What we know:
By secondary structure, the protein is an alpha+beta fold. It has helices spanning 3-13, 18-22, 29-36, 43-85, 92-106, 131-143, 164-175, 214-230, and strands at 113-114, 117-118, 124-128, 152-158, 182-187, 206-211.
Amino acid sequence: MNPFRDRAVRLRIAGKSYNEIRKEVPVAKSTLSLWLRDLVLSDKANARLKARVRLGVTDAFLKRNKMQTVHAERRARNAAREGRTVVPKFSKANLLFAGALLYWAEGYKRLKVVDGKARMCHTISFVNSDPEMIRVFLRFLREVMEIPVEKIRLVMRLYPHINEAEALRYWASITRLPKERFFKSSYLITGASKGIRPYNRLPWGTLQIQVNDTPKFHYLMGMIEGVKEGY
C-alpha cells in the first residue's frame, strides 16, 4: 500500500479530520476523499469528527462576530470623526443656541403658582449629571447671560452611598468655581439608592445650577421662544 495512503487511513480511523490528516500527509483533499470515502468509522471516531465540526463552527462564529465588532467600532470612530468636523468653533451665537437648547431640554421652566395666582419671582435652575453639559451651561450663563460668579449657586444632589467630600472635589474640578459657591447638598432616596439601579450609573450624583434672578429667568424663557420661532 502507498505509505501516504496507509498513514491517511490510520489517521482517519482514529477520527482525524481531513485538515488534521493533511498536516501529516501532504496530499490534496481530493486525493484524501478518494482514499477515505469508503471507510467505515467507529462510533468513537465519528463522535470525535462531529465534535471537531461543532468546534469549527463555534470558532468560525466567534471569529466572524469579532470581525463584525472590529468593523462596527471602526465605522463608529469614522462617523464620530466626521461628525466632529462639521461642528463650527463655538462662537457667542453658537453658545447662545447651545445654552438655550440645554435649558429648554433640562431646565426648570414652569412658572410658580401660589393659591392659584402666578408669582413673578423665578429662579433659573438647571440639573444634570453630565460634566460637559454642566461646563457648557455655566459658560452660557457667564458669557451670554452675563451672570457674575457671585450670583451662581451650586447644589449637589447626592445619593446616600456617595461621599460628599469626594463629590465636592469632583464637581469643583468640573465647574472651576470656588467651593464657596457650593451650598448645602440634598440627599435623594430613589430607585438607585434602593438597589433597583446600579450605584455606578451616577457615581457623583447630579449638580443643580441656580441663579436667583427673575429678569434673567424671563430673558432665558424669551431665548427659548426665539429658538422655537426660528424653527
